[in-house]
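JOB MANIFEST
job_type = single_chain_structure
chain_count = 1
residues = 337
[input]
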Amino acid sequence: MIVDLGDVYPAEGPEKVARAIAQYSLEEAQGRAAFDEGYDALDTFFGPKGELERREVLAAWLAGVHTDPAAPIVMTYHMLIARDAEGRLAGVRDAYITLDRAARRCVALLSHALVLPEHRRSGLAALLRAAPVALARRALAEAGLDGPGGGAAAGEAEKAEVLLAAEMEAVDPDDRDTAVRLFAYGRAGFSVIPPSVLPYAQPDFRDTAALGVTPIPLPLMAVVRKVGEEERGDISRDGAASFLRHYQAAHVREVDPAHLAPIRENALGRLAAFEGERVPLIRIPRGPAEIAGFAPLLRSVVMPLYPTAWRGKAPLDDPARELERLCAAWSTGEGGS
């Protein structure tokens, strides 16, 4: 089982998570058959949204083709397969474990997480959110970075940093799932780097050359959990920049670098304009009672931070009206619970 109960944030519900640990197995995909089973499940859900890399790209990552041990940021790709007591597929998580030795920072890039419908509300989703912590710690240990650092005084332990990073859509009152997914991450100890400071975007994963189309980046929010410091309300400038740097270190293996440059310039340009060494984080609401806390994460607030061509076709509402619609939807039960 690739998960430590101690790595699960307490608000996830320890008893529910403990039952999930007893009910499910969670292991790394080994071999092409296991990879294909996991990929097919992810593709069914994420493929139509354009949010999944091509099969051959991820298969190459899993085989270690793109892993360069000498790179400034070393990365490995992992696919975790969850099965129930009968051995049936219950969920899939894939992630890149990215290690910056110089910064003593390991960032787990949480690519996709899927719990099949019949296994939802079982605690399995919490396991999938926490499991990459164990993978990150393993990477640090293998690199010899889990002890005192080079700049630490004798007897002092300079702890290496473990950061979980996820890309999430802005909140849309007309798309219930945008709030539901963020509620889950809020309960798991995650916060959002303000889009006004780091307007992150995912590159266009389509084979744009073959399709003969212009790549269109997908605006997404930078969602982070600094393991062991979840209650801290800010992150260093370098930590915020590492979200983009680590993701782009993975993307450059499959995306034309020229397509990554505009994303980097838009995000890091705003970060450079931010005054101060620590960036205040936005606390993610943990349930419908806190729905108004999504005000700075609304689509109408986030999308204007990006070039017009990246914003999609849906018109942008006035932020005050959009927040009113969001609160009304959840107060009447339309938003779910």
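[summary]
Residues 148-156 have pLDDT under 50 and may be disordered.
Residues 5-331 form a domain with the Aminopeptidase fold (CATH 3.40.630.30).
exit_status = 0
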